[in-house]
Write a sequence for this structure.
């Protein structure tokens, strides 16, 4: 009995870690963390504005996230960010956390708040 | 008869000199999915041969401030990539990649090898909108992703 419970627990933990998430899951997660509903409109403004640094999000991702962008410095193509145009976006928690960490530092010189992340995802999800 | 041998030898030598530069300009990147994924998402997955092991170690110890960008990684991935780069670093072509004071160079484009190879490229060429910077190998080396930096694969955008 104990062994089977243990096996079940391991199985659940393993499947949880490898489970693919959806963009909506991330929206929900960041809204919950922020304690407030996301705003796509606020996300659009946030995405296209500069925040004291040299780059905005749009510097690399463009103002139309359904199209591919280019790295502002190296010119390397960057695939589209809007989930409707690129099914791989916002499906892996490690990647989502890594890129928010890096890119918020590059554009704002600080971590983004949960509300900022929720707003951006809400805006990206508004593209059909 | 002797003349024929001589001609053959000369031809062989000529062929060797003609083909050698092309061989020397091959910089294949050993297959390493993590390196390609992590480093290759912002720039070409540069050939590890272009920096020596000291330079790569320093690059990999400063990813949070990587040429003006935060390229930080979790420690497991960082260590795995640092190990890969260390094992495939440097070599015959590039030699030691350090400045005059012996400090490891961090930019491939600062190395003597890179500068010698690009000495005919005018400063204004690097700044063309389709090139942007020396970091953008593939702008001119159209087969750079396959490790081909040969003369015949160069197309410099106007």
């Amino acid at each position: 009995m104990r062994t089977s419970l243990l096996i079940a627990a391991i199985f659940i933990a393993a499947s949880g870690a490898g489970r693919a998430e959806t963009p909506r899951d991330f929206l929900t997660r960041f809204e919950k963390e922020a304690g407030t509903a996301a705003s796509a409109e606020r996300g659009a403004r946030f995405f296209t504005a500069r925040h004291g640094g040299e780059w905005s999000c749009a510097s690399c991702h463009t103002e139309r996230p359904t199209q591919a962008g280019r790295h502002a410095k190296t010119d390397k193509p960057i695939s589209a960010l809007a989930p409707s145009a690129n099914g791989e976006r916002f499906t892996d928690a490690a990647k989502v956390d890594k890129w928010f960490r890096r890119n918020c530092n590059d554009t704002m010189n600080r971590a983004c708040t949960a509300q900022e992340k929720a707003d951006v995802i809400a805006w990206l999800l508004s593209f059909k | 008869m002797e003349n024929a041998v001589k001609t053959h030898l000369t031809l062989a030598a000529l062929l060797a000199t003609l083909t050698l530069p092309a061989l020397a300009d091959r910089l294949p990147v050993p297959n390493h999915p993590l390196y390609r994924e992590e480093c290759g998402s912002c720039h070409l997955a540069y050939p590890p041969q272009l920096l020596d092991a000291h330079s790569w170690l320093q690059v990999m110890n400063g990813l949070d401030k990587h040429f003006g960008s935060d390229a930080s990684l979790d420690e497991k991935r960082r260590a795995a990539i640092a190990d890969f780069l260390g094992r495939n670093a440097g070599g015959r072509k590039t030699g030691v990649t350090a400045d005059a004071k012996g400090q490891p160079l961090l930019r491939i484009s600062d190395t003597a090898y890179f500068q010698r190879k690009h000495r005919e490229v005018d400063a204004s060429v690097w700044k063309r909108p389709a090139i942007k910077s020396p970091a953008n190998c593939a702008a001119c080396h159209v087969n750079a992703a396959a490790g081909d930096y040969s003369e015949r694969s160069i197309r410099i955008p106007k």
Remarks:
- The interface with chain B takes residues 71, 73-76, 78, 94, 98, 101-103, 105-106 of chain A (CB under 8 Å).
